[in-house]
């Protein structure tokens, strides 16, 4: 079981149940990848609700690496998830919500995605 208090989630990715967590190192990796000056800028970037497919691969890859998997973003991009593109968006949104806060169910008043997240 994932520990939501530590920001962990689980998702079916590439035919296997996997744990994801955005550790401090994973967040630093994402700050660099997205050119964000700090965590607030990173959260604001995610808050736009507009993500490219490459962004989803980066977020999910960072979450997998944060949980200890040695996987590249290119390997993540080649993995399949249920629900197609919407499935990737759901995984990224859930991971970001678990990381940046919410209530005990992983749902929160402060959503990191504005309205409905969508891939661009």
Describe this structure in words.
- This protein is about 50% helix and about 10% strand.
- The protein is mainly alpha-helical and about 120 residues long.
- It has one domain (about 5-115).
- The protein has a two-stranded antiparallel sheet with strand order 1-2.
Number of separate strands: 4
> Which whole number gives the mean pLDDT?
84
Q: Ranges with pLDDT <50 over ≥5 residues?
A: 103-118
Number of helices: 5
Secondary structure category: mainly alpha
Approximate shape: globular
Q: What gyration radius follows from the Cα positions, in whole Å?
A: 13 Å
SSE sequence, one letter per element: EEHHEHHHE
> How is the largest sheet built, in terms of strand order?
1-2
Number of domains: 1
Sketch the major β-sheet: 2 strands, antiparallel
Distance between the termini: 32 Å
Helical content (DSSP H or I, runs of 4+): 40-55%
Q: What is the beta-strand fraction?
A: 5-15%
